[in-house]
Amino acid sequence: MGDCIRVSDKSSAQKLSLDGYGDDEDGGYNLKPFEALYLMAMNKMSITQDDVLLGFDDLLEFCQEEDPDILSKYLIYRDLRTRGYVAKDGFGFGVDFRVYDRGDFGVRGAQFLVFGLDQGDRERAGKFCDSIDEITKMGKEPVVAVIESRGEIIYYKTNRITFENNKP
Predict the structure, then answer these.
(1) What pLDDT score was predicted for residue 161?
(2) I need a surface site. Which of 73, 83, 96, 116 has the fewest CB within 10 A?
(3) Distance between CA atoms of residues 55 and 85, nearest Å
(4) Which helix (H) or strand (E) holds 29?
(5) Is the residue at 155 inside a domain?
(6) Is residue 155 classed as helix, strand or coil in its secondary structure?
(7) Per mean pLDDT, which range of 32-46, 53-67, 96-110 is the poorest?
């Protein structure tokens, strides 16, 4: 299964594309694991492997072998989709998702770049600030999505801060 799930039906792939799911790559139409988990949970898709129908837990287990953070990514992705946003895979700087403002997918680039953190995770401030600097230079808004212990997602818009040397 790897890091993507192939969509074999061309008409389904076309509909998924229009709705902001998946990408046409590697000679076929592929979904990221978090997209497939979401579509499966919403009963919009079924997945088979070797002619065996997989359940949500089966797919999650397969995906966790490739990406131990897949459950966190899925929870954030599900929350963003439920709120009406289109979210695509991130592209560096530790970003988990590119998020398009409502109605902007296919019209404009992503407005937000989202970092996912589980409650209690630690992130190095220097690395985090460097990422925020790069993102803001691109004209995007950095957002931190914190997954609380109950599975709720809280979003924090961030911006660049500087610490001046304190001299007497």
Answers:
(1) 62
(2) 83
(3) 26
(4) strand 28-31
(5) yes
(6) strand
(7) 96-110
- The token pair that represents 151 in the structure block: 């599975």
Q: Is the pLDDT of residue 50 over 70?
A: yes
30 Cβ contact partners less than 8 Å away, ≥ 6 residues apart: 4, 5, 6, 7, 22, 23, 24
Distance between CA 88 and CA 80 in Å, rounded?
A: 10
pLDDT band at 78 (very low <50, low <70, confident <90, very high): very high
The mean pLDDT value of the chain amounts to 87
Whole-structure pTM value: 0.87
Four-CA torsion 148, 33, 95, 17, nearest 10 degrees: -120
When divided into structural domains, the chain yields a total of 2
Residue type, 50: D
Structural domain that includes position 64: 1-68
Residue 76 lies in a domain: no
Token couple for 39:
């579509």
Angle among Cα 91, 95, 100 to the nearest 5 degrees reads 75
- Residue 92 and residue 60 in one domain: no
Give a yes or no: residue 79 inside a domain: no
| Predicted local distance difference test score (pLDDT) of residue 82 | 95
In one-letter notation, the amino acid at residue 17 is S
Q: Are residues 58 and 100 in the same domain?
A: no
